[in-house]
Amino acid sequence: MKTLFSAILMVVFAVGLQAQSRLEDAKKTASENKELILLNFSGSDWCIPCIKLHKNIIETDEFKKLETDNVIVYVNADFPRTKKNQLSPELKKENAALADQYNPKGLFPYTILLNSEGEILKGWEGLPSADALAFSKAIRDIKENEKP
Fold first, then answer.
1. Which of 78, 91, 98, 140 could form a Cys-Cys staple with 87, CB 3.0–4.6 A?
2. pLDDT, tens digit, for every residue of 76-113?
3. What's the pLDDT band for 11 if we cut at 50, 70, 90?
4. Which domain holds residue 33?
């Protein structure tokens, strides 16, 4: 009985650790490279503003340059609805844990800029009114003003 209890406890602990793996990896990378973390909550196959955000900002060269220039680590917490776009159970759990921690109101799209400790520096509710260039500049400005 003791062995069974220990095994169950280890599984529960392992699942708890896995639930935040992408964010923990992003924190580690951000800390090592002095980057920020951009966490985006989206509904990639049902939320029209989310789709526009990805098309008009996140998929642009200007935005991608933020990653290649070591300004941000990008994490997308997606909540698709259609059967063909479903995520793995592990990724669903992880996204739900991220939503519990950072998006308890369930806003879509919701984008937040975090420091390497996971503290919120800025948030954007809905589709940002800025274009990719202005959005990227705002992130660069925040990074430049961030204390080392």
1. 91
2. 999 999 999 999 999 999 999 999 999 999 999 999 99
3. very low
4. 2-145
Q: How far apart are CA 103 and CA 130, in angstroms?
A: 22
HEC states along the chain? Answer: CHHHHHHHHHHHHHHHHHCCHHHHHHHHHHHHHCCEEEEEEECCCCCHHHHHHHHHHHCCHHHHHHHHCCCEEEEEEECCCCHHHCCCHHHHHHHHHHHHHHCCCCCCCEEEEECCCCCEEEEEECCCCCCHHHHHHHHHHHHHHCCC
| Strand pairing category for 36-42 and 72-78 | parallel
Structure tokens at 92: 């669903």
Instruction: Quickly state the pLDDT bin for 20 (edges 50, 70, 90).
Output: low
Instruction: Phi first, then psi: give them for residue 114, nearest 5 degrees.
Output: -120, 155
Overall number of domains in the chain: 1
Encoding tokens for residue 51?
């789709």
Q: pTM (2 decimals)?
A: 0.85
